[in-house]
Amino acid sequence: MSADLGDRVDALGTRGTVAAAAVLAAVLAVAGLAVTGSGDTVVAVVALLFSKSTLAAALRLSVPIAFAALGGIFAEKSGVINIGLEGLLIISAFAGVYATSITGSVWLGVVGGVVASTLLALLFAVVCIEFRADQIIAGLAIWLIALGLAPFASQVVFGSKNASAGATFPDIQQLLADTGLPVVSTALVGALDALAGVPFLGALFEASPMVYLMFVAVGASWWTLNRTSFGRWVRASGENPKALDTAGVDVTRVRYAAVLLSGVLAGVGGAALSLSLGQFVGNGPTMVNGKGFIAIVTYLLGNYNPVGALLSTMLFAGLDALQLGLQGQDVLAIPQSLVRTIPYVSVIVVLALFGRTRIPEAAGEYYESGEE
Amino acid sequence: MTEAVRLDGITKRFPGVVANDDVTLSVERGTVHALLGENGAGKTTLMNVLYGLYEPTEGDVYVDGDGLTYDDEGAVADAPRRFDSPRDAIDAGVGMIHQHFMLVDPMTVAENITLGNEPRKWGGLAVDRAAAREAVLDLSERYGFDVEPDATIEDIGVGVQQRVEILKALYRGAEILILDEPTAVLTPQEVEDLFEVLEELTDAGKTVIFITHKLGEALEAADEVTVLRDGKNVGSVETAGTTREELAELMVGREVMLETETPPATPGAPTLTVDGVSANDERGVTAVDDVSFTVREGEVFGIAGVDGNGQSELVEVVTGLRKPTAGAVALEGTDVTDASRRARTRAGMAYIPEDRQERGLVMDFDLSENGVLGSQHDAPFAQGGRLDWTYADDHAADIIEEYDVRPPDATAEAKSLSGGNQQKFIVGREFARDPACIVASHPTRGVDIGSTEFIHDRLIDLRDEGRAVLLVSSKLDEVRGLSDRLAVMYRGRVVDVVDPDEVTEEQLGLLMAGEEPEDVPRADPVADAADATDGVAGTPPADDADAEVADD
Ligand SMILES: Nc1ncnc2c1ncn2[C@@H]1O[C@H](COP(=O)(O)OP(=O)(O)OP(=O)(O)O)[C@@H](O)[C@H]1O
Ligand SMILES: [Mg+2]
Fold first, then answer.
1. Is the whole model's pTM more than 0.80, yes or no?
2. CA B230, CA B12: separation in Å to the nearest integer?
3. What CA dihedral angle connects B133, B138, B144 and B146, to 10 degrees?
4. Which tens digits make up the pLDDT trace of A179-207?
5. Of A229, A246, A248, the CB nearest to B120
6. pLDDT digits (tens, 9 = 90+) for B326-349
């Protein structure tokens, strides 16, 4: 039972860290404003901080990052550092839109995104596990492949680097109403509708289904890692693969499974990103724009705990949402381009101050059975 | 007799090396069988073949935990086994406890024991942790082990970790247990406990094969001993009808001096002074508590103690790998408390680290490269910003020749060497620095008797050339035999500094356990402790004229 306790203390530690970090970031932001702006500005920022639209935006922005982070956790816990998450998000963002534009269904779009991302993850796995490639270089290659391939495919198929899916996710109330079940569509939707009226937290009750799926995925990932045999093998494979091998479990298979799972999870994230807007944007760094790399930071900050990763994702997404809101309101005396850096700077500060990550012992190392 | 294992004509070749050469070996069911041999004799390789980690180049493996069956002519009727992986070996009832433990540090004892065979519930959706715990408690009770299923591996001592390894094998239904140098990391008391465990196991019908370098242990714990030399089986003998001398000769192929005479030391001026040093371990707990001592030129100062009583941390402070929380370290009168490892090396401090794979060598480097480590900034290795590889190759070749490192190939990667040969290479490299002071932490761990003898002789030679030696070892016979003065550490403190030639084994054992035995013969008090900082150059030599190495 002390193991239980250990888990809890672990989780608490992570939570404490993230909470402290969030407070710190808020204080820093407000202090900065107090210096530069007037009292009105402070009031405006605080109002923005606690507005429903900020929370709604934060939840929406969290989805792709959180899914990618979960994928990254599985891969790295198994000993394969998957720095190619960014690429997996890009390819699935496009594939999601493409599949939806053909089938007309966003759900089939998600499936399309997952398939594309998993195939790319398979390529990564083969290169790293079979051919002993350096994981960091292979990961960067995955990113570059997707960065080139997705806009190119879009150009070929849609005639432009930007493509429209022609559909987006319904919100949760719409989805439930569509089921046509009497109790669900009337009572439940009614209740949700009422709750959605609550000032700040109301955003939790009218979000996209992908937001709820994200919460479920975080819980399921935690369970898988900490309570199932597979999760133990993944952790052992990243800490001491030889121990796992001599215990009679095939390390290669565990690593393949973990990397493919990271492809599946990142695929959901990428498709959720593009389909929540109903379009794919392939200009420049594409619409993914570093979210895969931020995901790496968030799971490191969460010390490979899915719950910790979610919390740090939401910290980042919250600051991003705030930043977007600030740009819209134009209340600050500082240039827009500086405002845009707030989330990134905060993440760096938080990482420097609170990052106490225990990296798996064998992460990044090639393993072959029978080698002394 | 009923055999549990028969290896028939096993040959295992690695590129350029024949590790096992037509080895035939049979082990009777329900007995303890010791495998003796020098470093690189092929013991680990042979057992890896039996455990399915290596496929033999030639030969057959027969295994049956309940005993093999025979046909009318007395030939083995069982089919030979072909283990493609440890899984196959495990399924056939073979379990192996490796030289380097195969445990996942951040996981608990129960998680490690059940790894790969977790009891499950809810249709496989969850590990049944209660059942796992129960199974572990059951097993440890049956064999009289004392392990806490919920403890994390990194928090328990090596002795307990070893039990976890044994339990892991038993949990998988092992009938035949292979232990690779199980005693190398244990204290004398833990060794006794282990032997009791082995007896429990054989009483329960299990078969045990264990690898060792130590003749005394083979004779004490085993029923039969097989000696390997250069990959060949040079003889299997029953322990009842043999002697240490006979085994030693079989092992080395020549007569060995088991007992060496150490000439008395003639200590001079203080070389290494440790004054009131305290230090914390990784968790911030006090590991070294106000330790003071002086090592003079021309003497060996030994530190004995059960592993984990602050010796490692103390050595790290002395060598500059850990910052003390209080106190000072001085080398030849110069304060080096804040000096880096590199500065200390330059100032004449050589260091044989306790963990050879972690700190002594870069496993992926070849021996030439490893031979340069620690001197890479200095002439003659560094020549105007680049390394002189010709010199480095020669240097490595010299060490290899002088210390009989096998295989004698400077281009071999460190990881392809057997453990003992890795150790010999490190010792050679450090001694070659021409140091004023040598800090040796378990210098002969995993080294065979021939090489141990050689390293001991070299240490004494260096001492007699007027160098100071700080020796830390958990082998009692080693610290007693070599030291001129012997400090005992317990819970981070030096509880006593004794005369190693007069102190009895019992007194030492009690001191190491934190007790206070009576009539402990103290070492020459003149050079004792911190007041030596103000120069004891005129100290008369320690008067321990009839120093003698204790028997094994
Ligand atoms: N994977 C490998 N590749 C190449 N050579 C190897 C490999 N493993 C072992 N050898 C060589 O085979 C020989 C036997 O090694 P082995 O590890 O079996 O010795 P050992 O008897 O266990 O020695 P020690 O007591 O030092 O552990 C050595 O010469 C070693 O260098
Ligand atoms: Mg060995």
1. no
2. 12
3. 10
4. 777 777 677 788 888 888 888 787 888 88
5. A229
6. 999 999 999 999 999 889 998 999
Indicate whether B52 and B16 sit together in one domain.
yes
What are B385-443's pLDDT values in tens digits? 788 888 899 999 999 999 888 888 889 998 888 888 898 899 999 999 889 999 999 88
Q: Which domain holds residue B54?
A: 1-93+175-256
Strand B334-335 versus strand B326-331 pairing type? antiparallel
| Domain shared by B226 and B186, yes or no | yes
What does DSSP assign to residue A184? I
For the CA of B48, the nearest ligand: 1
From B53, B116, B120, residue closest to A249, measured CB to CB:
B116
Token digits of residue A4: 């239980």
Percent of residues in chain A assigned helix, strand, coil, to nearest 5: 75, 0, 25
The C-alpha atoms of residue B394 and residue B371 are separated, in whole angstroms, by 10
Long-range contacts for A44-51 (Cβ within 8 Å, ≥24 apart)? A44/A329, A44/A331, A45/A322, A45/A326, A45/A331, A48/A322, A48/A325, A48/A326, A48/A329, A49/A322, A50/A199, A50/A200, A51/A200, A51/A325
Structural domains of chain A, ranges and CATH numbers in brackets: 2-169+208-354 (1.10.3470), 170-198 (no CATH)
Nearest CA in chain A to B416: A372
Nearest CA to ligand 1 atom 8: B416
Ligand 1: residue whose CA is nearest its atom 12:
B19
Domain final residue, candidates B384, B417, B432:
B432
Q: Find the B470 Cα to ligand 2 centroid distance in Å.
A: 27
State how far the Cα of B438 lies from the Cα of B417, in Å rounded to an integer.
Answer: 24
Which residues of B sit within 8 Å Cβ distance of A? 53-54, 85-87, 90, 96, 98, 102-108, 110-112, 115-118, 120, 124-127, 129, 150-152, 168, 172, 415-416
